[in-house]
Recover the amino acids of this structure.
């Protein structure tokens, strides 16, 4: 892990959740508090990736106010300029966020004093091709999922790693995840848990039938190409957002993006393992009938 630091923060972007009014109220409180520290703050309550792009030259820190979905969107949008993101959890799980609504002032004060470290997380670049025709491109912090649509029928995923045919999965879906995404859908489908700063990719089939069922962990430098064979609907999603509906023979190419997302962390560098256990142990204890 690196101990790289961003410059002192002078201009902060506050990205609130567009559907949670309480996050906008908190953003206004934070903006007022930052102004008292002689720091300029801009609040965006309705925003998308393009809106954030337009402000990146003006910000040296982004504060995300929402849940993990808001953090994903903020981190993807800010990565191209290397602007670090810190999250305040206004959602349910808050696995990616750093502070609670009650602890934000002490937390941000520590950040302004330089008491933090930067956690770099791999992003995926995904391109969609119809034959030799380029369709579109996007980036993912969690995962790229190629799956069947509403019809409960298998899809064939002809899979190549570094241009060499590897296997053809017959499954409901194929997940290609980052270490960040290894604790999301990939974990629910039986994939491994990877620490967030690893430079690796994970391939996890969902409900495979008479094909390779084990997850694959690949080098972060690997290139993955999936050719979809289907007689009914198949779709590709990027961090849970629909990218489009695939035609038979379409190709989805996934590799590590050139830039990484940067999260500000104020806790210890082993926080990830404790965070995982805190979320899994209550369920395990409940299932076993034990209490703490």
């Amino acid at each position: 892990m690196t101990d790289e630091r961003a410059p002192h923060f002078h201009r902060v972007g506050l990205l609130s959740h567009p559907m949670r009014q309480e996050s906008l109220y908190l953003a206004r409180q934070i903006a007022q508090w930052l102004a008292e520290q002689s720091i300029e703050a801009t609040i965006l309550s309705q925003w998308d990736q393009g809106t954030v792009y337009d402000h990146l030259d003006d910000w040296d820190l982004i504060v995300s106010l929402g849940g993990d979905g808001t953090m994903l969107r903020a981190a993807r949008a800010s990565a191209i300029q290397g602007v670090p993101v810190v999250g305040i959890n206004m959602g349910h799980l808050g696995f990616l966020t750093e502070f609670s609504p009650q602890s934000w002032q002490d937390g941000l004060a520590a950040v302004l004093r330089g008491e933090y470290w930067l956690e770099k997380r791999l992003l995926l670049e995904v391109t969609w091709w119809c034959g030799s025709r380029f369709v579109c491109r996007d980036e993912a912090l969690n995962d790229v999922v190629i799956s069947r649509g509403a019809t409960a029928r298998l899809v064939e995923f002809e899979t190549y790693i570094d241009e060499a045919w590897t296997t053809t999965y017959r499954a409901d879906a194929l997940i290609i995840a980052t270490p960040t995404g290894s604790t999301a859908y990939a974990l629910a489908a039986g994939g491994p848990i990877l620490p967030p700063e690893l430079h690796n990719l994970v391939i996890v089939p969902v409900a495979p039938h008479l094909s390779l069922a084990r997850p694959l962990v690949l080098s972060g430098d690997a290139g993955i190409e999936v050719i979809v064979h289907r007689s009914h609907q198949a779709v590709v999603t990027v961090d849970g957002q629909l990218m489009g509906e695939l035609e038979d023979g379409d190709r989805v190419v996934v590799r590590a993006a050139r830039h990484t997302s940067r999260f500000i962390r104020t806790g210890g560098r082993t926080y990830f393992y404790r965070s995982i256990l805190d979320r899994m142990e209550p369920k395990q204890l409940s299932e076993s009938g034990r209490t703490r």
Summary: The longest strand covers residues 251-265. The chain has two domains: 11-116+266-288, 123-258.
